[in-house]
Protein: Amino acid transporter
Amino acid sequence: MNLLRKKTVDQLVQESTPLRRTLGTFDLTMLGIGAIIGTGIFVLTGKGALTAGPALSLSFILAAVCCGFAGLCYAEFASMAPVSGSAYSYAYLAFGEIIAFIIGWDLILEYALQAATVSAGWSGYFSKLLEGFGLHLPVELTAAWGTTPGVTTYFNLPGFVIVLLITWILSIGINQTKRANDVMVIIKLAIIVLFIVCVVWYVNPSNWKPFSPYGLYSFQPGSTQPMGILPAASIVFFSFIGFDAVSSSAEETIEPNRTLPRGILYSLGISTVLYVIMTLIMTGVVPYKEFAKFINAPVAGVILATGLNWLAVIVNLGALLGMTTVMLVQLYGQSRICYAMGRDGLFPKFFADVNPRYRTPFKGTWFFGILTALAGGFININILFELVNIGTLTAFIIVSAGVMRMRRTQPDAHRGFRAPGVPFTPILAIVFCLVLIAGLNWETWVRFAIWFALGMLVYFGYSRKRSKLEPGRSPSDHADAEDGEGAGPALKTELA
Structure:
């Protein structure tokens, strides 16, 4: 039983069945910004400010540095193996099948849980926007059961509908996805700049004192959660999740060797600058302890403190667009990871089927879109969002370690981009990831262990024997193993 059987770069590229290549550097940067800027600004800054005080800006920088080192490693892999699958495909190259499956399983957790979690926040802002026009949804249909203490809710209808709408856009083609994302990101950035220009004049520097009330890491009397810059960084790390989804678009990217690294790094840089500016302004306008009054809508609370009520409607729109692009990119990455795993035989071929008209993994996109919509609609998953962080940090560690391994085992492989400072860059990425993991609570570790155990049951019960690398099986065996067209033949016919 060879659990560490690997694929080569040539093998991955040869087996890839390119989808419609239309994404350039600008589109990838917009895709990355669309994934990063959303929940971090409009939701997590409230909890982050209570955890770190004004030093939350340093927490964002710490999380960004971690993602920056990891992003350099992703960029090297993306230029070396421009195929769908992101960290899953990279782990297949560097470490072998079982590690690749574990990372793919983690990424499913990352993308699905984040999209479902964001749909809950989207619903709240949508309800507030409607209230501004005198419209009110039945409170029972504004959130999942048990989400809001003291309020009876059963179903998150707005979140359910927006996830299905995004799924429809993703399923009908990358061009439609690209246009929708680009427009929403541009409007979102314009609204954030408007907020900065209008609100910066209300900053009171005395609100920044003390700048770091809880230090780097501490426990306060009566609190079971750690406080300080490091725990806040572990929380707001959630804000940066999504840039890795850019690398999963490799088979839909023009000149991926050049454009993928640029898209990853540009989106990280722009988003970090905006996060730091927004955090400093918000904690400068409102004393950090007062964020407890509006923890779920911190930007709206800051606007309320300034008296610029006209700005509230515009910022609510920006929040909706921000969260919409986050969900769009997460569901996009979800479908492409499962597409790659289905193509390799680790998931049913259903997920690798490509619609000949739209040239997208149509069935897999709708499968996970519906599951995510139901999860966000019925289940209170807010307590699980830290699972997204630990799953993503694990993937970052594997990718960073993979760069060092590939430099040693395949030093002459073509690399359109080489991460600078290897092995120090990936080592620093790993260290920062481990530091952020240490800031998570023990319940997250337990839940992650349960998810890992379920993944091992799937791998040994289904995936291992159906892998294309299983002795005696060939790509053609896999393609004919089940009813329906395989991704490869379908796309070859379409391209011809």
The chain has a mean pLDDT of 82. Residues 34 and 185 are 6 Å apart (CA to CA). The radius of gyration is 22 Å. Residues 21-495 form a domain with the Amino acid/polyamine transporter I fold (CATH 1.20.1740.10).
